[in-house]
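User: I'm putting together a teaching handout on how multi-component assemblies are represented. Below are the sequence lines for each component of a complex, exactly as they appear in our records. Could you produce the 3D structure of the whole assembly as structure tokens, so the students can see both representations side by side? Please keep the chain order the same as the input.
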Amino acid sequence: MAVTAKPKLDARSIRADFPIFEQQFHGKPLSFLDSAASAQKPRQVLDAMRAFYETSYANVHRGVYQLAERATEAYEGARQTICSFVNADSTREIIFTRQATEALNLVAYSWGLNNLGPGDVVVVTELEHHSNFVPWQYIAGRTGAELRLIRIDDAGELELDNLDELAAGGNIKVVAANYVSNSIGTVNPVERLSAWAHEHGAIMVVDAAQAAPHRPVDVQALDCDFLALSSHKLCGPTGVGALWGRRELLEKMEPFNLGGHMIRKVTLERTTWGELPYKFEAGTGPIAEAVGFAAAIDYIGRVGLEAIEEHEQTLVTNALERMIEIDGIVTYGPPPERRAGIISFNLDGIHPHDVAQILDLDGVAIRAGHHCCQPLMSRFNVAATNRASFYLYTVPEEIDRLVEGLHKVKRMLG
Amino acid sequence: MTEFDQLYREVILDHYKNPRGHGVMEHADAQAEGQNPFCGDEVSIYVSFGDDGDRIEDVKFSGRGCAISQAATSMLTEMVKGRSVVEIAELPKEELLEEIGIPLTPIRLKCAILGLGVLKVALHKAKGTPLPEEWAGLDELQLT
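Assistant: Of course. Below is the structure of the complete assembly, with chains in the same order as your input.
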């Protein structure tokens, strides 16, 4: 079946920017359908990092020599890029972390440990990645607060009709949700959750790791209080992520990691903390990685997030239409218009490992497992699913290969 | 043989589609369950001992898993029946892998040896046989 609407994005020419596609696996060209786990890197990002190391690298801040100034400029320039990317008010609100996971832990520990107690309620969703679930479960346990769940319906969308019942008899302090589910692609109504959180005087914490690569993320429009980003899912390097937080909240919070760089003054008796954002950035940061992160944001910005979103919608619509024709397939998640380019599915009676393994032998890479979402897997009463995910470099032939591969799996193991 | 044929060779598919020793044993003499945290696979192993108490009379397994883990555990039940508890407690994983006879990546290796690990835990619990760190250190083998 042909793709009906011509995407505004030329995936074929974009693909040429990604050196990984120049090699073969098991003698076949790579069909990489695992971008939801981590995206591939374009030459532009790799070149930016290499150029930085070759011409501008030194440790940042405090150096008085020209090279250190140049490195600092690049690092702080990256912070500015991220600030604009999420439409934040100030670079003081952008904290570099190792990943989105560390950003969420920072909020859970620094805000949660000091603001939660018995009688308080932390609300998370059944769709969360473990990174926005486990820290809250743990910190709630440490502080005596209660963890409550926003459930999902059979289509994998949040059940928002009984939110006020959920709030009954407890003091809601935190609402934590992902913007896009990494596991089944659901796009969550974060604005609505933010409004509800604020009605109850709670803070709204958004995990945007899976959203930011695929759709515009605007912290003003979402009206949230914290938002976590990851670099590696949007074509940037691993080892760097960012937290955006409202300045008035960040200022009142205790530091997270302690050490060099995050201090104002250290004496034998006591230490005072540095200004934002440095208060939360102990130790030498991911300097070149931040430069690569910014280069990735520039790259996807040039392609255009709206174009990327539309491209993925076309692919996901086409793929779903063809996949549901396969006998015995179960797909999880909402209709294409409310999901990102992610399809989780199972073939009746066939373990996802076997599906992924057989596809791999044809050069098709998908993920099989619990996708760091075990509560969600329990909701669907499965241990694992297969997940195919699409990105800006995905071409329609890859969906052909996926569907052909699934028929082969059925023939072998069905 | 292509890689595909190797990985899913006939004997693997046979054990996968017709697993030996599949089921639950009431009143087992030894029992344990374990999980592979990478994929969420679970296996329970049930053992009955012979009258002397030193030999494995019968083994059954239940749970869910991929073709490799199901086939490997099925082969395992055939391999260990009638052998001594001490011998199986010390059984190197290579003996099972040889029986499986297909090249395995590190991730799939964990699928293949899950059943053996759980069996060793079951013997350890029932008979106090040594559980070398290689197996004991597998935190996923959550003791029941």
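A couple of points students might notice: Residues 137-144 of chain B have pLDDT under 50 and may be disordered. The CA atoms of residues 33 and 110 of chain B lie 15 Å apart.
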